[in-house]
Design goal:
Elements: H1 9-47, H2 54-70, H3 75-101, E1 108-112, H4 117-128, E2 132-136, E3 146-147, E4 160-163, H5 167-180, E5 185-188, H6 197-205, E6 210-215, E7 228-232, H7 237-246, E8 253-257, H8 259-285, H9 291-296, H10 300-313, H11 317-325, H12 330-349, H13 353-375
Parallel strand pairs: 1-2, 1-4, 2-3, 4-5, 5-6, 7-8
Antiparallel strand pairs: 6-7
Length: 376
């Protein structure tokens, strides 16, 4: 609806009322969609069908994008809306399955470091699937869970023991658990495994039921659709299977890795991405320009990068230092990045457009190839 004439106040009011009605209709349709999703979720729960159906998700998104394009609407907008709806729908189905799974009914779990951010997430998750959860943590904060001051005297009372403290103290706690030799499943949830290698090996040598776990998401996640949980196999097949079973009712993608593979991957996935974003934010902080001003006159690329960088630098700097310093694979990744960065800088300085172009084209080819492999 376009016209060269400006709208009268009454015409503008009518249009706004129509927009309000459309917005109400959108919300009503989302509610109706959620009801259908709930019915399908009940069917999945009763029949044991998988929570995620990737082919169906792709079909819904592609169909929506095609319809949007035919209506003159951005296909990207349709994709973003549908992906958001699917994510929330899966999250709701997942929560219902977790609560009703009663996986830990009649069993007890201890979360050492259970008052930290990820420790609290782990405590709430175990509680949701039916465990009676105790936490051991010296932090002076309130908790919904029973607090155990002398956890060492009670380790034999638990079927599951989770070590959720920061990286540096984790190794000492694992060594102590190896001395105590509890009978329950033991795993840590650390972002790196190298700093706790000796502690994990001590548990293996002591004959404990141990593996290592790495949730690849933050403590605010509820639904785990599209998220990854890494499981490090330490040679105890039963322990690995039991740890995976804890998350069997989620929509998370579970990936098995060796101890060496884990930290090599993390050097790229966490180490490089953290380093880039911290450097980006630090350079901005030293630029002499006010970030709000830069945001006003910036591009969509800058704003997207700034959003990620702002999230990274708001996290615990000590943990992020440990992730860099504690990974033996970090120097290799940093060296690789430095070589690429210097090459790009040299291409600009020496007006070598062909080298710059070749670097971008090769990077694009590799990344697009990886995406196509995932989609297939």
């Amino acid at each position: 609806m376009t016209s060269e004439a400006t709208l009268t106040p009454d015409e503008l009011k009518v249009l706004r009322q129509r927009l309000d009605a459309i917005d109400d209709g959108i919300v009503d349709l989302i509610a109706e969609r959620q009801e259908l999703v709930n019915t399908i979720g009940e069917h999945k729960l009763k029949t044991g069908a998988p929570l995620r159906h990737f082919a169906r998700e792709r079909e819904v998104i592609e169909r929506g994008m095609k319809r949007a394009t035919s209506q003159g609407v951005s296909g990207r907008l349709a994709r973003d809306v549908l992906e958001t709806l699917i994510h929330h729908s899966l999250g709701k189905q997942e929560t219902n399955q977790l609560v009703r799974s009663e996986h830990g009914q009649g069993r007890r779990a201890l979360v050492i470091g259970g008052l930290g951010r990820m420790g609290d997430w782990m405590s709430r998750y175990l509680d949701m699937v039916g465990y009676q959860v105790d936490v051991a943590d010296p932090a002076n904060v309130e908790s919904l869970f029973n607090r155990v001051n002398d956890w060492e005297s009670h380790v034999d009372e638990y079927e599951v023991i989770v070590v959720a403290v920061t990286l540096r103290p984790t190794n000492d706690i694992l060594h102590r658990l190896a001395e105590l030799k509890p009978g329950g499943l033991i795993f840590d949830i650390g972002s790196l495994k190298s700093p706790m290698r000796s502690g994990l090996n001590s548990l293996v040598e002591a004959g404990c039921r141990v593996c290592s776990v790495h949730p690849m998401f933050g403590p605010n996640e509820i639904g785990l659709s599209g998220r990854h949980i890494l499981f490090v196999d330490l040679g105890h097949a039963e322990a690995l299977a039991e740890a995976r079973a804890l998350f069997a009712h989620t929509a998370a993608d579970c990936v098995d890795l060796s101890l060496d593979e884990h930290d090599e991957v993390m050097a790229w996935v966490l180490g490089l991405s953290h380093l880039l974003n911290i450097a980006f934010a630090s350079a901005l902080a030293q630029s002499g320009e006010a970030v709000p001003l830069l945001r006003k006159i910036s591009s969509s690329t800058f704003n997207a990068q700034l959003k990620v960088a702002a999230q990274v630098v708001s996290e615990n700097p000590h943990l992020y230092y440990e992730i860099q310093q504690g990974n033996s694979k970090t120097p290799e990744v940093v060296s690789r990045f430095r070589d690429v960065f210097n090459g790009l800088a040299r291409a600009v300085q020496e007006e070598d457009e062909s080298s710059w172009t070749r670097a971008m084209e090769l990077a694009n080819q590799r990344i697009q190839s990886d995406r196509n492999d995932e989609a297939g």
